[in-house]
Amino acid sequence: MKRVSWFVAAVFAVVVAAPVWAGGEKCASSTQVCLNDMSKKKAMGWLGMEYDKSNPEAISVKAVTPGSPAEAAGFMAGDVLVALNGAKFSDKEGMKKAKGTWAPGQSVTYTVKRAGAEKEIAATLAKMPQEVFTSMVGSHLLDNHVVVATAAAETATGKAADKK
Asked: 3-state SS of the chain: helix, strand, coil percent to 5?
């Protein structure tokens, strides 16, 4: 617990200083807005999948977290997501309704395409584990609010030149 608290404190300290170094952020929201939004996600239901959104035509499962509700339900990397609770992924308004509030204990049904055939997979959302939440927050902050600051700081101190 001390290690996680130290990590969160260190990331927060760097993030607060980041705008001074950065000169810009990847994320359109301020760091505080992001932290506020992410803190709301802590109470939401969790499935345990990473998505590959690189293909604008389809969202597929990139990875399934071991021990997650997604693993228990039978999701597999490579599954192409077709629908959620009957709403097609191509229907943005329908998806908002289908997703709802995503509360722990809520049942969801996905239609996936696997090996050329469509299949329905039902899962029950769980409470997001602390380590998953911490990783999500840390990754977002580092990727969107600190990376540019680190590069700018290295350039300013000459450390980037040392790496050549």
From this structure: 45, 25, 30
